[in-house]
């Protein structure tokens, strides 16, 4: 992290928190991505619209941002494709096992003071720390 910008990080965090709070207040729903995406398959007609709108916003927001002249940071994945696929499957399995993803538990659940979310977020963080320790420091990656 050579270009840490506390102001933009704080504003971004405030926007994420405010949007999650507004989503809960206005819709009575939690803005957990895995739950929104997972519920899309068996969604009723009345549930389908907001789910598609939410997920479309995730995809369209960066496209609109760049169309308006913004620049996105470069993305580089320095891992074999098989490892990325395996990691994605493990994250999906973990989200299913934990009854929610990092956005649902870490942003929405912590904000609501959910004990289950506090425990899940602790496990997410411990796993991430352990993964970085093993892959970057013990394996020399």
Question: Any overview of this molecule?
Answer:
- The chain is an all-alpha fold.
- The chain has a domain of 64 residues.
- 12% of the residues are buried.
- It is found in: Cell inner membrane.
- Keywords: Cell inner membrane, Cell membrane, Membrane, Transmembrane, Transmembrane helix, Transport.
- One of its GO terms (cellular component) is plasma membrane.
Keywords:
141 residues; mainly alpha; 6 helices; membrane; cell inner membrane
How much is the average pLDDT? 88
- Uncertain segments are none
Name the helix and strand elements from N-terminus to C-terminus, one letter apiece. HHHHHH
**Would you count the extended β strands for me?**
0
Outline type: globular
- Give the termini distance in whole angstroms: 17 Å
Kindly state the percentage of residues in helix: over 70%
Q: Main beta sheet, described? A: none
Class per helix and strand makeup: mainly alpha
Quaternary structure classification? single chain
DSSP helical segment count = 6
The Rg value, from CA coordinates, equals 17 Å
Into which percentage range does the β-strand content fall? under 5%
